[in-house]
Amino acid sequence: MLVCELLSRPYANMGVCDDGPYIVMARTLANTGHFVYNGWAAPMLGWQLYLGAAFIKLFGFSYTAPRMSTLLVAMALAFVFQRTLVRASISESNATLGTLALVLSPLYLMLSVTYMTDIFGLFAIVICLYGCLRALQASTDRAAIAWLCFAVIANALCGTARQIAWLGILVMVPSTLWLLRSRRRVFAAGSAATLIGAIFIFACIQWLKHQPYSVPEHLIPETFPVEARDQ
For the chain, is the Cβ count within 10 Å smaller at the N or the C terminus? Predict the structure, then answer.
């Protein structure tokens, strides 16, 4: 994947899709240490901005610098995805082929060298899935609890880049707990970790609501608009 990306020469000195304003936010964070929304971002961006700001600090400002942070996450995602497939009882060779089908797809290759949130969000989901699979396959309660906590923490932090990735905590981890419900100690500890994760999500959403230009998120819609149609 890395060879394919480098052969494509991904060095355009301009915004791609919506990543131009995101790169400006990363530059502001690198220069001032402050999180400043500029009226364009609907995703929270979260840890994505800190990683992009770190690359700007290291290599100086350019459109390429923060995009290379996305490429780094895309390579890590390729590794985690392959190991997830193996943990799902797929053979090593088929897991590798499945991973290549994902990471060599045109959409993945394009998004991996932009500063969009798609790769970061997918990483949050896949790493949560990996943690859930390890919890299901753990031979001891202590190991299962540790992997559940890992899944919650990883998804909570990585999901700050793209809020929909928090479905890991809200759906995937509870589903795992349901499968582990016969192990009472694991179920209790996992439920507590999930509750803490849900509180973290709620706190982040409340914080986002108070940021200038932000688009407020509602877990439950206050109204359900009905489209009027001509008879």
Answer: C
Q: What's the pLDDT tens digit per position in 169-192? A: 999 999 999 999 999 999 999 999
Answer yes or no: is 150 within a domain.
yes
Structure tokens of 156?
Answer: 């909570």
- Domain ranges, residue 204: 2-8+17-209
Domain contains 73: yes
- Please give the single-letter amino acid code of residue 89: S
Q: What percent of the chain is predicted at pLDDT more than 70?
A: 93
User: What are the structure tokens assigned to 101, written together?
Assistant: 């089908």
pLDDT recorded at residue 229? 58
b/e per residue, 192-230, with b = 16+ CB within 10 A? ebbeebbebbeebbeebeeeeebeeeeeeeeeeeeeeee
From 220, 205, 138, select the one nearest 166 (Cα to Cα).
Answer: 205
8 Å CB contact between 51 and 69: yes
* 125 exposure class (CB count in 10 Å sphere: 0-12, 13-18, 19+): buried
Beta strands in the chain (DSSP E): none
CA-angle at 216, arms to 162 and 52, nearest 5°: 35
Can you list the positions of beta strands (E) in 88-215? none
In a domain, 216, yes or no: no
Tally the domains of the chain.
Answer: 1
What confidence tens digit (pLDDT) does each residue in 28-60 have?
A: 999 998 988 887 777 888 899 999 999 999 999
The single residue listed with the structure tokens 């290291």 is 58
What pLDDT was estimated at residue 225?
67
Q: In this predicted structure, what is the pLDDT of residue 59?
A: 92
